[in-house]
Design a protein that fits this description.
By secondary structure, the protein is of the alpha+beta class. Helices cover 35% and strands 25% of the residues.
Length: 229
């Protein structure tokens, strides 16, 4: 039967490290399940032929439908820096949002109208849109420069004013080009999270192996035959 005399400090360190490694592995497993569900939801979101259907309809799930309809723009457009297949500027304008009821006030919606490369050429124009939350500022985003029409942070209030519109009239969503699966799901698919999880679990197993091997080497873990009576 085994005889085990654990080293106190090493055992405490190992238990804490093991808990961290296992929790990281479980977190990656949850991320994998979450992204799998999001990808499935994106695949069944459907499509509509008007912005009114997309904004006024009731749709379940995290993604709205794909919109194939003309975008009636009004006024100037802004240049919002973004990375697609290359760095460039997303052209953003305002369109009157459809009223979901007869007594609803007039509102406006930011809408993407094209993608401009760093040389000033329009390299793509949306053929369809999806309603999405306004982009969050990046951790290292530069400050906006309205004078040169260079926007690095999607500031609804400042951008609305630059387009001559009261910010209170602008929705807190925008119509962005529907370019397929969002980058957050396509660039790091569920299978990659499974790989991360297996890595963390593998490190946990290796830690246990090293811990046991060290105790065996120091004679603190050994097996002895059961003595006969």
């Amino acid at each position: 039967m085994p005889r085990f005399r654990p080293l106190p400090v090493l055992t405490a360190f190992t238990l804490v490290s093991l808990a961290i490694l296992v929790s990281l592995g479980m977190w990656q497993m949850r991320r994998m399940e979450w992204k799998t569900e999001l990808i499935a939801a994106y695949g069944v979101r459907g499509s509509v032929t008007s912005f009114e259907q997309a904004l006024c309809g009731e749709f379940d799930g995290p993604f709205g439908p794909s919109i194939t309809a003309p975008a009636p723009l009004a006024g100037a457009q802004l240049r919002y820096y973004s990375l697609r297949d290359r760095p460039g500027w997303v052209r953003v304008g305002l369109m009157p949002a459809p009223r979901c009821s007869a007594d609803a006030p007039q509102r406006y919606l930011f809408v993407e109208t094209g993608f401009e490369d760093m040389d000033g050429n329009i390299v793509s124009r949306p053929q369809s849109w999806r309603i999405d939350a306004l982009p969050r500022p990046g951790q290292f985003a530069s400050g906006n420069d309205p004078d040169t029409n260079q926007w690095y942070v999607f500031d609804r209030n400042m951008m609305a004013r630059a387009l001559g519109t009261d910010p209170d009239q602008v929705l807190d969503r925008w119509a962005r080009a529907d370019l397929g699966l969002p980058a957050s799901l396509a660039q790091t698919p569920p299978a990659r999270h499974l790989g991360y999880a297996l890595t963390w679990f593998g490190l946990a197993a290796a830690l246990i192996g090293v811990y046991l091997a060290l105790h065996i080497a120091r004679g603190r873990l050994r097996w002895s035959a059961k003595q006969k009576q």
